[in-house]
Amino acid sequence: KKIYKIAVIRGDGIGPEIIDEAIKVLDSVCAKEDFELRYEDYLMGGVAYDFKGTPLPDETIEGCLKSDAVLFGAIGGEKWDTLPREFRPETGLLKLRKALGLFANLRPTAIFDELLDASTLKPEVLKGVDLLVVRELIGGIYFGEPRGNDGFKGYNTMVYTKPEIERIAHMAFESAMKRRKMVCSVDKANVLEVSQLWRDTVIEVSKAYPEVTLSHMYVDNAAMQLVRNPRQFDVILTGNIFGDILSDEASMISGSIGLLPSASIGGKIGLFEPIHGSAPDIAGQGIANPLATILSASMMLRFALGETKAADRIELAIKKVLHDGYRTKDLANYGAKEVCSTTQIGSIIADYT
Amino acid sequence: KKIYKIAVIRGDGIGPEIIDEAIKVLDSVCAKEDFELRYEDYLMGGVAYDFKGTPLPDETIEGCLKSDAVLFGAIGGEKWDTLPREFRPETGLLKLRKALGLFANLRPTAIFDELLDASTLKPEVLKGVDLLVVRELIGGIYFGEPRGNDGFKGYNTMVYTKPEIERIAHMAFESAMKRRKMVCSVDKANVLEVSQLWRDTVIEVSKAYPEVTLSHMYVDNAAMQLVRNPRQFDVILTGNIFGDILSDEASMISGSIGLLPSASIGGKIGLFEPIHGSAPDIAGQGIANPLATILSASMMLRFALGETKAADRIELAIKKVLHDGYRTKDLANYGAKEVCSTTQIGSIIADYT
Ligand SMILES: CC(C)[C@H](C(=O)O)[C@@H](O)C(=O)O
Ligand SMILES: CC(C)[C@H](C(=O)O)[C@@H](O)C(=O)O
After folding, report:
1. What is the pLDDT of residues A297-308, one digit of tens each?
2. Which of A287, B84, B180, B310 has the greatest number of beta carbons closer than 10 A?
3. Which residue is closest to B223 within chain A, CA to CA?
4. Cβ–Cβ below 8 Å for A142 and B227
5. Which residues numbered 315-344 in A keep a CB inside 8 Å of some CB on B?
6. Which residue among B231, B254, B277 closes a domain?
7. Could you tell me which residue, B257 or B44, shows the higher pLDDT?
């Protein structure tokens, strides 16, 4: 019987509650597919700062590095927003991404037919949308040097080298090969030199994937096109900050923001997390929607552990739960037959797997 | 009788056609309000490169500087996209903004009830949206040094100094005082030092406007909130690249992208232009929608020349034209009683003023 080690980072706000449900569901599929998951908890974010004085203790990095995958909830909250940058929850997450070499963030935006109405976009615009944002995650303006703020002048550097662009471009083209074989690379090459290098390099890499159709779009236009006609996209390939903005926009368009998982990969082990935040305002009330985290757990099974059948079980269970009308409070207005608490819906999904 | 000098930059693609209609309408209101406009044509963009070897000839800058306002169509086209950066149409526009000191770009997004259906967003989400993006236009990553691309490493610098942030913040707060008295400042202060300085400075400036409510939003969240609930915004204050992305997103959400004007101000003279691009694919066919340019001309009358009554005449005429069911081809599916060519709709608006 296979045994995997999972590093679990609950984090702040609703993080702990939604992770509990993901583990509940994971345990139920393990039993059915005959493998075992051993969980180790690690601290990151505000809670790590509170207990250890740093948002990313060394033992968290070490713990992740000796695991097979990392399952992560969410971090952050107003409470820590005024701390010096080095102590903020976000800094912990950025450092962990870097330490684990997670250069690729994959964010699929699929539409669940049951939740079509939850979007502010018209259903006829949404129907059939199925896109994947491939975001570079450990370069660009997030990590570029020099950077600073002396109270008179603030500055950051958006920088990419060719090898950094090449590896994320390969990731995007490989993803496209398993999908509809289209890559749209998003940049601001009409203004930025770093984008010109980005575009030139993506074109070079594309030569290795003759079956994939490559297009280019300026980031301002991409922000428009996601609203105008999101169906036109298959894989969107872009840098760190543009990807941050566009993937959040895409997720909101889907109307399914409480259901969207993400995978950060490229290093030795992958990290899997919902795309939504820590929602401190509803933490501890039992109303958080754990579906995005449960789907992240499914991505973990599929991409990090190769446990495809178990991953399929979870995805099917979620489809069935939606179809049968179980909803958490955030989706109570969209086809709910029964409004469930966080733990209730977790249990139903576990049963359905 | 007052005489104003207007520098006219037709530019590329549909630029010349839409400017012609704006001038037609301006001439008709001049006659009615008893002032005179004297137009001088100047070259910028691809056409300037073709004729003069540079996208921004010196005489264009000089001509603009001795005018009372600049009316601008649009620039750019695939034809020039592969030129070295210094020769590209966009570089001309960026240099002109800098040369004229146009640090503030104001982009109002209002919804025309007649065109509610043209948006991909649901009408109930759109109804009543009335927001203004105040974008810093001659700083940030567009102009920051150092910048470069040696084929292995590409880099740009996002930089702001306190005085640069102060002046655009004042502009936003002053705009808000004439509106619903809310400013939402958008940044990425959880990651970027330059955004931290931005946020700190905006907070300082806000003290001079006790009646205005200030909030802060991360740019990824702002991209979501524009889709989720655009009505929550009054004035959005942000830097150059975030403003580029968010104002385009906001304009597409409105469904009225062919109707949205913009004003670039802050220097000695203002520049007024539609927010849409040069649409080379439809140039010369007589189907371009000139309404955004005509509304830009109205903004010019109001903000640069103080000819409020003439500006009102244009806005009323446009409302009437929409109400009466005249539409250009792009809006043929949204309440058209008669589909008009570019020159036809220009003439009807001129008549209606
Ligand atoms: C929390 C923040 C630092 C982070 C980011 O900007 O990368 C988040 O927005 C995300 O997209 O994962
Ligand atoms: C053409 C381009 C350089 C320009 C910009 O990015 O500022 C345009 O997108 C705009 O918003 O006016």
Report:
1. 999 999 999 999
2. B310
3. A249
4. no
5. none
6. B254
7. B44
